[in-house]
Amino acid sequence: MVKMAHRKNRYGLVGRNISYSFSKGYFTQKFTALGLNGYVYENFDIPAISDFLELIRDRSNLRGLNVTIPYKEAVIPYLAALDPEAEKIGAVNTIVFTDKGLIGYNTDAYGFLKAIEPFIKKHHTKALILGTGGASKAVAFVLENLGIVYSAVSRHPKKGQYAYQDLNEALLEEYTVLINCTPLGTHPNLTDRPGIPYQFVTSRHLLFDLIYNPKKTAFLLAGESRNATICNGLKMLEFQAEKAWELWNTL
Q: What is the mean pLDDT of the chain?
């Protein structure tokens, strides 16, 4: 049963096992800083996407939602419409409540673009996306728009994707941007990391991890030890959160 807070302006995050979430703390601090009394941001930790219906049944004081693992794709059938960019990406992380129903947006793409763009150099022409979940779709969308050729790496690769055991020195010499879209390395499992051959990482590589806690995951530490450029997901989360706030307040 989803507990309903008696507030006029309620926002929240929909996901599973999300007690660690960045969003609740970020927006709670934002509401305080802006003096927005009566605004609340909650974690809606639901065991199955079917529970989303109960959450939105009484939507009179819900103003907007974020969506995280594992529901960025599964939530789509519950929405009235998708923003064209979210439709192209195939994943939603922001929901706006409107008179015409729930509209799905993807602000992950915006956040990722703003976060990675300062680190892109001329030789960063090919990227490996580690993981194939909802967040990876936003990453792929951005890379395509940047003109960076990408390939996905998966434990269960489909046609056109690599398995982790396929990665070797030649491939890592070719693909100089490595983006971790898996949950491996998230607190408290600090020693976990994607199974790539880190010995072939060089100073020409850029390693970007969507994880923000810890600041330096085992994936990033391995890259740093090889003199690669590294970046975690904190700025991406901040950018996507601000974009969500903008959507909630302009639509």
A: 94
Dihedral-angle region of residue 42 (phi above 0 means left; psi in -120 to 50 means alpha; beta otherwise): beta
- Look at residue 187 in the predicted model and tell me its pLDDT: 83
Question: How much is the average pLDDT of 65-74?
Answer: 95
39-45, strands of its sheet edge to edge? 39-45, 9-15, 62-67, 94-98, 101-105, 81-82
User: Which tokens in the block code for residue 152?
Assistant: 């996905």
Q: Outline where DSSP puts E strands in 18-78.
A: 39-45, 62-67
Q: Is 59 left (phi over 0), alpha (psi -120 to 50) or beta?
A: alpha
Residue 14 carries which side chain, given as an amino acid letter?
V
Spatial separation of the C-alpha atoms in residues 124 and 131, rounded to whole Å: 19
Pairing of strands 206-209, 229-231: parallel
Lookup: tokens for 161: 């994707």
pLDDT in the model for residue 251: 67
Maximum CA extent, the chain: 58
Task: Please tell me which residue in 72, 100, 121, 137 is annotated as part of the active site.
Answer: 72
Residue 6 pLDDT > 70, yes or no?
no
Catalytic residue list contains 72: yes
